[in-house]
Design brief:
By secondary structure, the chain is α+β, with helices and mostly antiparallel strands. Among the domains are: 202 residues, Sandwich (Jelly Rolls); 189 residues, Vaccinia Virus protein VP39 (Rossmann fold), CATH 3.40.50.150. The chain has 20 helices and 34 strands. Strands 7-8-20-15-22-13-10-9 form an eight-stranded antiparallel sheet. Helix 14 runs parallel beside helix 17. The structure holds 2-oxoglutaric acid and fe (ii) ion. 2-oxoglutaric acid (AKG) binds next to strand 13, strand 21 and strand 22. One of its GO terms (cellular component) is nucleus. It holds the Pfam family Methyltransf_11. Keywords: Methyltransferase, RNA-binding, Transferase, Zinc. This is Fe2OG dioxygenase domain-containing protein. One of its GO terms (molecular function) is tRNA binding.
Length: 885
């Protein structure tokens, strides 16, 4: 069998199932917590949580394709059920999904919210893999893992494909909508590799938008006109830059999100060459990328190259998309930025004012705006990218208008801005030549640009807030330069510049003459200024090099001192160790040999009884909603939770330190199995047995109910999950063989032992084998653990050493007790002063010769093929002879 493991996302090209009618659009990973933690979680911090989970690489939030395909699949379909025959009946992994079809009219608000976007397209389906896992992070927090493949039927129409692509991203994370879930976090990794992090519920989004409008008081520019002369308090005019106008909040939050999604989908199409008019998309020019001057661009209506318009050979681009007209231009018309030419009078005025410039603060001259823009330039900035000072091309009418998305970033205006980000000689966008390193790497940020040299000595900075519009008319568009400072926001910034192409040659010529005059003057001015800057740059660079050199020398000296101290401490430790060994040797010679055996006492009366007593009745009432659906045999008894699961959680690190090799029988068993097998390790512990499978070329996924041990496996890069061996989260009959090592002796009743074995056998293919190993009662046969079991149900002590050197066991116990309160550690730990440890007891049922074989006689559909003793354990190899339910 061929298994491919994709890491966090799928490759860029479309992934085709063997049923070619279907293709993969995206993969969705999500994590749901039940309401137990509701108090701590708000929509606001959900993304913070998923980010933390992801960073900590907690296993439940991350499922790879192998895990996904070995899970139970539920198909949520927006299509009528009769088309279900078109779903993939086979996938490239030779795993046949067991598919249940659930219609999307499902009452659950959780599902309908989730698939709101998908429902819009009748041909899109979601394959949702619901892990049956119940995780055990402490006793209260629970996670449910869902993974989904978002697929669609292959569509012949490009238009429809695009619509699907966009709508597939419209997942909504909802907290309010559902009673069942606290948070629903999803990450969509579509095939175009776009990740949309800002999903909030509709209600939350409009709430945020309303709040933002109310509380916005921040001053947004220096030198702004605050004399109360603005009629509309939400708008700003700028006395130092005639013709410049700023309007905050022209878009609401929801529109903003839709636009961002639209632009990302267009970028995706542009990047993969799927836009019909290829010139619409411009990638970052590599020669500018190094100094962060470049940006990705989308251009509609008119093609420009480095602020140039090719009037003699028009380059074809896509027309302005309807969505921009509807969602943005109409808003701008409402705010009086643009307007339709109503009559000939308008049109004439328009032509006569086409030359622009010439002062006169055109903001109030409404006749100028009697036109609608026919072009839009989308600038997509990543963090650090910037736009150099320039005057917009005179082939466009004035005013033009830029709307900002994603972040609040700074635009500066000046007459001859001396500009330092990137290279010295940048003058207009695109005409910068390349030479040495960037000045912005040398100069402090506050001197990245300089407008004090501007002809009128004035400076004007405008924070272009998210959703705001900035309108350039009159001098602000023709005389003043504008530039965007390096973007600070992690997620970058998007700007949409709406302009109308001026077809009136006279008007364009007049405007060109005007703007060229200024541009030439600014170029001259900059040249002189850069000469002076160069000296300053050299001085700063020398100073920096000196500081760096000195810092390095200090660091080296510190490291040398540290090494010396370490060596001294090491010598001290060796001496202490030698003395300890001497003492031990002496002690050994005195003690009779039999005493070295560790006696394991029978389990105290009552501990094994789970049902019926008062305590348990109370517990039954407390059980989580989810437990109601779990049969009695599957409910974990207190003895297993307190004396097994929690013990492993609290001792996991120390446990891992000494158990790094599998037992000989396991190594041999794995070596005898088919190479390249797909293997499940049920109760994988710290992963020591999984190494054997990987070494032999197989693919293994593991699960264990101890979160502590699973974290250790995850750190080693294994595919693992926290799960209960009585409810294995994998689909039936998908594994070539399975391991179940040292799990059986922790299960406290025969009924549960049988169920546990059935679960392991269920996931193995018919004809495959599972290896079960459990502790033997007869340790005198050659057991190496040195235990002496006084009964078959015993408590086996584990001595936990304090985690830090010099820590007393009592201090360690205090640390553990803090976890006890969270339900993550057992409460029965006892301090052993003599051994300097905290002692925890593990519950074990140890097996007598033949007992395992008898157990499997009670399970139909399997056959014990071999039974043997190894390393103090009884082992059985069990073949699956027919399907187990
Ligand atoms: O990104 C911006 O805000 C300004 C864009 C701009 O000035 C231009 O495209 O000419
Ligand atoms: Fe511009």
């Amino acid at each position: 069998m061929r298994v491919i493991v994709f890491e966090d996302r799928f490759p860029d090209d479309v992934f085709v199932f063997s049923e070619t009618k279907v293709e993969l659009v995206g993969v969705l990973f999500c994590l749901v917590r039940t309401r137990e933690r509701r108090k701590n979680i708000s929509v606001k911090n959900t993304f913070e949580i998923i980010r933390r989970e992801k960073n900590a690489r907690k296993t439940p939030s991350r499922l790879t394709l192998v895990q996904l395909l070995s899970s139970n699949l539920i198909v949520l379909k927006s299509t009528p059920p009769q088309t279900s025959a078109r779903l993939p009946h086979a996938c490239p992994f030779n795993l046949t999904p067991s598919v249940d079809v659930v219609n999307l009219t499902s009452k659950s608000p959780f599902f309908s919210e989730l698939f709101v976007g998908i429902r819009m397209n009748i041909s899109t389906s979601v394959v949702l893999c619901c892990q049956r896992t119940r995780s055990f992070l402490g006793s209260s927090a629970r996670y449910f893992c869902f993974s989904a493949l978002v697929i669609r039927e292959r569509s012949s129409s490009e238009e429809e494909s695009n619509a699907i692509l966009i709508s597939s991203f419209l997942f909504v994370a909802s907290s309010e909508a559902s009673d069942d879930v606290d948070i629903f976090i999803c990450e969509v990794f579509p095939t175009c590799a776009y990740f949309f992090p800002h999903s909030f519920s509709r209600a939350e989004r409009s709430k945020r938008a309303r709040k933002k409008t109310k509380t916005r008081t921040r001053s947004r520019e220096m030198g702004r006109d605050d004399d109360g002369s603005n009629e509309d308090a939400t708008e700003t005019f700028f006395p130092s830059v005639p013709g410049l106008r700023y309007i905050p909040n022209v878009l609401d939050a929801e529109t903003h999100d839709v636009l961002v999604q639209f632009i990302h989908s267009q970028l995706a199409l542009g990047r993969s060459g799927k836009l019909e008019k290829k010139a619409t998309y411009t990638p970052i020019p590599p020669k500018w990328d190094k100094r962060l001057q470049g940006r990705e661009m989308l251009q509609y209506g008119t093609y420009t190259h480095s602020n140039r318009v090719y009037t003699d050979h028009e380059v074809e681009v896509e027309p302005m998309p309807e969505i921009l007209r509807e969602l943005v231009v109409e808003r701008l018309v409402e705010r009086g930025v643009f307007g339709e030419e109503k009559n000939e009078e308008d049109a004439r005025k328009n032509l006569s004012s086409g030359g622009g410039g010439g002062g006169g603060g055109g903001a109030n001259d409404t006749s100028r705006r009697r036109f609608l823009p026919d072009s839009c330039t989308v600038n997509v900035y990543r963090k650090g990218q910037w736009l150099p000072p320039h005057v917009d091309n005179p082939n466009f009418k004035r005013p033009f208008c830029t709307v900002s998305l994603l972040a609040d970033e700074m635009c500066i205006f000046g007459r001859g801005i001396v500009w330092h980000p990137g290279l010295d000689e940048s003058s207009t966008s695109g005409s910068g030549s390349s030479n040495s390193s960037s000045n912005s790497a040398v100069l402090p940020e506050e001197s990245w640009y300089d407008v004090t040299n501007a002809l009128d000595g004035e400076e004007c900075r405008v924070v272009c807030e998210k959703n705001s519009a900035i309108i350039l008319d009159g001098e602000s568009g023709d005389v003043y330069e504008h530039a965007i400072l390096p973007v600070r926001a992690e997620d970058g910034r998007i700007s949409l510049t709406f302009r109308k192409r001026d077809w009136d040659e006279d008007a364009v010529n007049k405007r060109t003459e005007e703007t060229e005059k200024w541009r030439a003057e600014y170029r001259e001015k900059r040249k002189t200024a850069y000469e002076a800057t160069k000296e300053e740059v050299v001085r700063v660079e020398t100073e920096r090099a000196r500081i760096a050199r000195e810092r390095l020398e200090r660091k080296k000296a510190k490291e040398a001192r540290k090494l010396e101290t370490l060596a001294r401490k090491q010598r001290e430790l060796e001496i202490v160790e030698e003395r300890r060994k001497e003492k031990e040797e002496k002690k050994k010679t005195k003690e009779p040999k039999s005493k070295t055996h560790k006696e394991c006492l029978p389990v105290p009366e009552g501990l094994l009884k789970n049902d019926g007593d008062d305590n348990n009745d109370k517990k039954k009432n407390d059980v989580n909603e989810d437990d109601k659906n779990i049969s009695d045999v599957n409910k974990m008894p207190e003895v297993e939770r307190e004396y097994v699961q929690k013990v492993y959680d609290v001792v996991a690190k120390q446990w891992h330190g000494t158990r790094y090799r599998s037992w000989p029988a396991i190594e041999k068993f794995v070596a005898n199995q088919p190479k390249n097998g797909f293997v499940a390790d049920i109760g994988c512990g710290n992963g020591k047995n999984m190494h054997d499978v990987v070494k032999g070329g197989g693919t293994v996924i593991g699960m264990d109910f101890s979160h502590g041990l699973i974290e250790i496996c995850a750190e080693q890069g294994f595919e693992v999950q926290v799960a209960d061996a009585l409810m294995v989260p994998y689909r039936s009959r998908v594994f070539d063989y399975a391991l179940n090592i040292a799990v059986l002796h922790h299960i406290s009743s025969e009924e549960r032992r049988i169920r546990m074995c059935e679960e392991t056998l269920r996931v193995v293919k018919v004809g495959g084998v599972a290896l079960f190993c459990a502790w033997a009662y007869e340790q005198d046969k050659g057991g190496v653990s040195g235990h002496d079991f006084l009964a078959q149900d015993v408590l086996v002590p584990f001595h936990k050493r304090p985690i830090a050197k010099g820590m007393r066991p009592a201090e360690q116990k205090e640390l553990d007790d803090a976890m006890v309160r969270e339900g993550k550690a057992p409460s029965h730990g006892e301090i052993n002063q003599e051994k300097h440890t905290v002692v925890y007891q593990r519950y074990c049922h140890v097996y007598k010769e033949g007992e395992l074989e008898k157990l499997f006689e009670k399970i139909p559909g399997c056959k014990v093929e071999a039974a043997y003793f190894d390393f103090g354990n009884w082992c059985v190899e069990v073949r699956v002879t027919r399907e187990l339910k």
